[in-house]
Amino acid sequence: MDNMDEKDRKIIEMLEEDARRSFTEIAKNISVSEATVRKRVEKLEKRGIIEGYTTDVNPESLGYNTIALLGLDVEPENLLEAAETIGKMDEVKSAATCTGDHMIMAEIWAKDNRHLGEIMSEKIGSIEGVKNLRPAIVMEEIKG
Fold it and tell me: How many domains does the chain contain in total?
């Protein structure tokens, strides 16, 4: 049911590298017309293969000097509600329910370590059923 050919895969690869890359540049790279690229991208979007386009932001440039990956556990009956609540927080840049060591993993952007502590204790720690918060401070992002 894949139905994607090598040109579709190359379009996706080029857009993953730079979502602002022009259709004209992609067309030259894969030896088709700009209109062909445009139609292929529209089909990929309609099929849900391309779900959207994002902007990567440097957290430090916005005053967030502490980035943490937070693993936490929740009482099973509170899992979905807790995950939804965490996912709506401004300081949470990504969140997912998981198997493995923790039931929820979240990326937190904080102004500093003190702010991180406040987010964990006052916001996340106060959610019903949340327990065992395990932060890991990001030292340097290698790939993002």
Answer: 2
**Residues 50-74: b if buried by 16+ CB within 10 A, e if exposed:** beeeeeeeebeeeebebbbebbbbb
Instruction: Give the burial class of 123: count Cβ atoms within 10 A of its Cβ; 0-12 exposed, 13-18 middle, 19 or more buried.
Output: middle
Domain containing residue 28: 6-46
pLDDT tens-digit readout, 48-75: 999 999 888 889 999 999 999 999 999 9
Q: Based on the domain organization, do 63 and 126 belong to the same domain?
A: yes
pLDDT of amino acid 30? 96
Rounded-to-integer distance, Cα 64 and Cα 45, Å: 33
| Angle between helix 34-46 and 6-17 (nearest 10) | 90
- Torsion of Cα atoms, 52 then 57 then 62 then 66, to 10°: 110
Whether 98 and 53 have beta carbons less than 8 Å apart is answered as no
**Which phi-psi region, left, alpha or beta, contains residue 44 (left: φ > 0; alpha: ψ -120 to 50)?**
alpha
Domain co-membership, 35 together with 104 = no
* Inside any domain, residue 54: no
Phi, psi dihedral angles at 21 (to 5 degrees): -60, 135
